[in-house]
Structures are given as C-alpha cells and as structure tokens.
Amino acid sequence: MMLLHRYETLFHRHDANPILKAADWPYPAHTVFNAGATRLRDGTTLLLCRVEDRRGHSHLCAARSRNGIDGWTIDAKPTLLPDPERYPEELWGIEDPRITFVEELDRYVVAYTAFSRGGPGVALALTDDFHHFERLGLVMQPDDKDAALLPRRINGRFALLHRPVTDANAHVWISFSPDLRNWGGHRLVLPARRGAWWDANRVGLSPPLIETPRGWLMLYHGVRRTGAGCLYRLGVALLDLETAEHCILRGDSWIFGPEAPYEREGDVGYVTFPCGYTLGADGDAINLYYGAADTSVALATGSVSQLLDWLDRNGSAA
Ligand code: BMA
Known about the structure:
The protein is mainly beta and 318 residues long. It is built from two helices and 23 strands. The longest helix has 11 residues, at 304-314.
C-alpha cells in the first residue's frame, strides 16, 4: 500500500551525537562503535563498547555515565579482551555485545560475536560488575551473530535470538536452553524479505528484545545491498509474548537509517547499528545506542508506545 502521509520520526538523534568516539579513549583505539547497553542498579548507564584497534581486531570496553549522554568514565584499559588461548573462537576479536540482565541469575548475560578462522559465532559471558566475567564459550557455531538472550525463561527454558547464515541469506532464529550451555528447539522467527524490499536477503536482531504487555518488541536491522555498498537500517516487529517464536506484526518500512554526516561517513559509511538501549523510569522512553558508520557511538530517543502504535498502523501480520 502506498503511504499517503509523511513518514513519522520515531527516533530522535541527540544533539550531542556522536556521544563516544576513539578520541575519547584513555588508550589507543581506532574506532569505538556497536555498544551494548544497560542500566546498573545504582542508575548508572553502562555501555559496553566495541573498540577496534589498528590490527583490525576488536575487544570490549565499558563506559559509565550518570545521565547516559555525557560525563563518561571509560575503563582505563580493555574490559574484556579476546582470550584465544582458552577460547580459540576469539582469535580475531570479540564484537557487537548485547547485554541482558537475568533476574533469576542475578547477573548480566553478554552475548557477543567471537571471530576466528571458522567465521563469526555467538559466545556468552556472565558478569555482575562488568569487571569480572565468566565465559560460557561458543554457544552457536559459525556463521552466526547478532544474538541476545531474553531476560527470563520462556516455558521453562532460556531463549536466545540469533542470526545464522543459512541459504546465503540471513534470517533471525530463536533457540532454547535449560542451562545456557545446551541449545535446541531452533526456530525461524523473522525471515529476510526478497526482491526490492529494504530488508531483503539479510536481517539481524539489533538490541535485545523489549518486553511489552502486547508482546516482545524487536528492533532489527535490514541490509540493503546497492551498487555503492550496503545500507544498514532499522525496522520493528512484534513477537508473541508466550513463545517469542511467532512474529505477529512486522513493519513495512524502515524507521531509522543513516542520514546524519557521522552515520554516512566513517570506516563503513551508511551504517546505523544499535546493540543496546535503556528504558526511562516510565518504562516507555527508549534511549537507543547505536554504532554510526562503524566509527562512533550515537544516541537516539524513542518511545515503546509510539513504536507499537506505529506498528498497528504500518505493520502487517507476518
Ligand atoms: C555487520 C557487523 C557489524 C557492522 C556491520 C557494518 O555485519 O559486522 O559489526 O557494524 O556489519 O559493517
């Protein structure tokens, strides 16, 4: 259906963007982007940033701020470095963390991409302070990435969204586990569309799912390949609350994409890549943290209820 009204702005860029960049780092860093996010018990916003060095390898580094916008305190040295001797899957670095606080464990679970000869795979690590980490190792073998755990069990099992590459295309899947180590019950949740669509061929989960009374709200990225390269844009879908396996609504158009100069220019131009968010005290305001052009971290604000309302008007049953 053709849209007869103006496109709505669902996410508003912060004036202070980009809020974090390599020049802010206390040690040599080439680029800082694709940060996982959470709010700590004392209200501090913590960003677990992907930091790429001049070898091209990435590690993770924590930055903390009272207001989630400025005044960042950045760890003086890398917070989580690849450990290829014990975890060979991390040979070429660790990337794109997504953070989920799991009340049952009273710990944060970080899902990240471990990159090595076999390609990118999904690894998990547990922490309660972002200083000490317990690695669980690789839970999804290559080629797989863009994973995040749900904050609670679904019908008795932990649930992980992830993005395996299957038939040369890439779709979002869900898998289940009794113990975070053994995974099964794999199901396709959100397939990439085909043809001219903005989210044709390759999609992936962006930040962790947002639980709402109507279902799990999913922000996902679509990769549009063009003659000039790729465009990484953001879309929204709703998964059913009971199983998180079924997409009940999927937006037709993308809702956020590279427009600002810092999103269009950088190591990989035309990329907006959110890996985390925090919610406001009202449970509705979303602070979305995204990597801009694989070079810096930026912030955009939105609202859960507005996203749901937009989906009702611009989504279709998938
Ligand atoms: C994806 C991931 C992201 C990156 C994006 C654009 O495949 O590797 O880390 O931001 O490509 O380069």
